[in-house]
Write a structure and sequence with these properties.
By secondary structure, the protein is of the alpha/beta class. Helices cover about 35% and strands about 20% of the residues. The protein has helices at about 20-40, 60-65, 115-125, 130-140, 170-190, 210-230, 250-260, 290-310, 330-350, 365-375, 395-415, 420-445, 475-480, 500-515, 530-540, 565-570; strands at about 5-10, 45-50, 80-85, 85-90, 100-105, 150, 160-165, 195-200, 240-245, 350-355, 380-385, 390-395, 465, 490-495, 520-530, 560, 580-590, 595, 615-620, 625-630, 635-645. The strands form 5 sheets. A 7-stranded mixed β-sheet has the order 3-4-9-8-5-7-6, with helices on both faces. The protein has a 5-stranded antiparallel β-sheet with strand order 13-14-21-17-15, sandwiched between helices.
Length: about 650
């Protein structure tokens, strides 16, 4: 405008080196031009040209010009999807402020709204009446994981709250299925209540730590299945997938974008791999790579792959329709066979988004192998970014190809990192075996790992839970630590005398002291609260990381300890039939630390060199940690058990 230009030419902005999907670029460009045109602004422009350097970009732009970017289920916003009579949108927001008929809130099986982050937030905004309704419900019936129940919404702008009871999943596949089934039940409850609009969070993606992409797929699959099953008898018109966390938006938007190109609910479209040999793959380097050199090589391979994949980005699978003509003695017989066919398709068809950073390292040869395997088994394939491949077909063949993709990517990563990776892994295995042998030997040697003199005679032979007198200095010390943050009365302190766990703990303490590290190993006294039966297992058998994160995994998937007793009180559950609860005061070995994330299964490496080892724990705050997460059972000892009233 300042230069009084009469014409302007635009390329396909972002579709080159940035790798944006061309249909989205086309829709965004046309939408912006139309918005400018309708604004009524004074302008000297009389001509706008869209100039495509790449001929493959012309068709998507012509399609967008012809149909308009707002055409239902094509292009447009990545956060809007129409499923039958239901409009699904993905938004960022707070459910407690959303003006809809009903909201979905996750809750743990105890129906205590203070146990999970979202339900706690909802409880604070809705008022105490909602929890009272749940308490009455709990007294009348049991609500199991995966089931839902509803209450009024209290002070919220909505009419109802649908509470989805969540729990941990044993695998990624079971997490997606759990989310899908739970979403269907939420929608059925909303429909039963006559609701027309519903806001739903990313169920399972918070404290339970389900992969967000799996939550997105499970949520959308649930919506599709619900709409199919309730066609013509559904009161719902709008479902808002409301993301409280910014990080949850992209996976849900990507899942919606992919579904918009599908022609039939539950059936994925098709695209093929490019067979052209247009770049070098992730072959093993001639020289050993380490440190920055390995990182640079990985980045080079990823850039090469982005260039190859860019031309293969698919707007969706090709539509493939199969028609059955059924002739039978009666309408009932035909319907029975139709139902059986649909059931077979539903039970055998599987659509998976295989997302892994190592996919960026696949070579052209890997692509051809995967494509050949997919075609041989009738599996459809499509790219959805340089680190994601979508598979659709028979569930057995899809699982086989998914494994092949992940295996190929991991193999290439190991090749790039070092020619000597196997030797390095072998050395680490030998070191681990040696450390275990030394630890076992030390655990047997009572002269090296002498048990405390003040333990009882029985406790030096077998496990004993020894009651301490209130006048005992150990009793007073434990109570004093507890009362720093909590005034609830402590009625009993018991010393855990467990020779096996103690010797393993002292062996770990000794080995940490011998490892080269600038940080000093400290033994911290930290609290741990959990269900009462789980607590018993801990002081008899020790912590088990396989059960870690039953309540939350915000800072890592390990064993959680708190500096403040008040924090652990939130997780120390009352003993059934009593007014008491118990918690452990543990001795925990801590050296160097890092701030944790909810997807960590092990503490981070100290440096780029894997031989430097890992830090000892992850925490919530590097400067003032109050929560510690350890990843080795030998790193902590359950020293005392405190019994608390209330």
């Amino acid at each position: 405008r300042p230069e009084q230009c009469k014409s302007i030419a635009f390329p396909a902005l972002g579709a080159g080196g940035l790798g944006y999907l061309v249909p989205d670029v086309a829709d965004g460009t046309i939408q912006a031009i139309n918005k400018f045109k309708k604004s009524g602004r004074k302008t000297s422009l009389s001509s706008i040209s869209l100039v495509m350097f790449d001929p493959s970009h012309i068709a998507p732009f012509n399609k967008s010009l012809k149909s308009g970017p707002s055409a239902s289920n094509s292009g447009g916003s990545s956060g809007v999807l129409v499923v039958g009579s239901v409009t699904v949108t993905v938004e960022k927001g707070d459910a407690t402020k959303k003006k809809v008929d009903a909201i979905v809130s996750n809750i743990l099986p105890d129906l205590d709204m203070g146990s999970a982050a979202m339900s706690k937030n909802v409880a604070a905004a809705a008022g105490s009446n909602v929890q009272s309704e749940l308490n009455n419900l709990k007294a009348s019936r049991t609500v199991n994981p995966g089931e839902v129940c509803s209450t009024t919404a209290g002070n919220l702008p909505s009419k109802k709250i649908i509470h989805a009871v969540l729990t941990k999943a044993s695998s990624v596949a079971s997490a997606r299925k759990f989310v899908q089934d739970t979403v269907i039940k939420c929608l059925m409850e909303a429909n039963k209540l006559g609701m027309t609009s519903l806001a739903m969070p990313a169920l399972g993606a918070g404290g339970l730590g389900f992969p967000v992409a799996e939550c997105a797929e499970g949520t959308l699959s649930g919506i599709y299945e619900f709409v199919e099953q309730n066609s013509g008898k559904n009161s719902l018109k709008s479902v808002v997938l409301l993301m409280f966390d910014d990080a949850h938006l992209p996976p849900f938007q990507a899942a919606v974008k992919q579904r918009r190109s599908w022609s039939t609910p539950g059936v994925a479209p098709s695209a093929s791999f490019d067979n052209s040999d247009d770049g070098a793959g992730a072959s093993a380097p001639e020289d050993e790579l380490s440190g920055n050199a390995a990182a640079e090589e990985m980045e080079r391979v990823k850039q090469d792959r982005r260039k190859r994949v860019r031309g293969r980005q698919a707007d969706g699978f090709d539509e493939q329709e199969v028609y059955f003509k059924l002739i039978g003695p009666s309408q009932q017989a035909v319907q029975a066979v139709t139902s059986q066919i649909n059931k077979i398709i539903k039970d055998t068809l599987k659509t998976v988004r295989v997302t892994d950073s190592n996919i960026q390292l696949l070579s052209d040869q890997d692509d051809r192998t995967i494509k050949k395997l997919a075609e041989a088994n009738g599996v459809l394939t499509s790219y959805a970014g340089d680190d994601t491949i979508i598979l659709c077909g028979h569930k057995l063949y899809v699982s086989t190809i998914e494994t092949e993709i992940l295996k190929s990517g991991e193999t290439n990563r190991l090749k790039i990192e070092s020619k000597g990776t196997e030797q390095l892994l072998d050395a680490q295995r030998k070191a681990t075996a040696k450390a275990k042998a030394e630890r076992d030997e030390m655990a047997k040697d009572k002269n090296v790992l002498k048990l405390p003199d003040h333990w009882t005679a029985a406790g030096k032979k077998n496990f004993v839970l020894h009651d301490l007198a209130a006048s005992d200095s150990e009793y007073q010390h434990a109570v004093q630590l507890f009362k720093v943050t909590c005034n609830t009365p402590v009625t009993k302190v018991q010393r855990v005398e467990n020779p096996k766990l103690y010797r393993i703990f002292k062996a770990k303490e000794k080995s940490l002291g011998e490892e080269p590290c600038s940080a000093v190993t400290r033994t911290l006294e930290l609290f741990h609260g959990s269900q009462d039966d789980a607590l018993t297992q801990i002081y008899i058998q020790g912590w088990d990381k396989n059960y870690a994160g039953a309540n939350a995994v915000y800072y890592g998937r390990g064993n959680y300890f708190a500096r403040d007793a008040q924090f652990s009180m939130n997780y120390a559950k009352q003993k059934p039939g009593t007014n008491t609860r118990r918690m452990i005061l543990a001795s925990v070995l801590i050296r160097d630390i890092r701030v944790g994330t909810n997807d960590q299964k092990a503490p981070p490496q100290r440096s780029a060199d894997p031989l430097d080892g890992r830090v000892s724990a992850t925490v919530n705050d590097i400067n003032n940690p109050t929560i510690y997460v350890t990843y080795e059972e030998s790193q902590s000892y359950p020293a005392y058990v405190l019994t608390i009233n209330g």
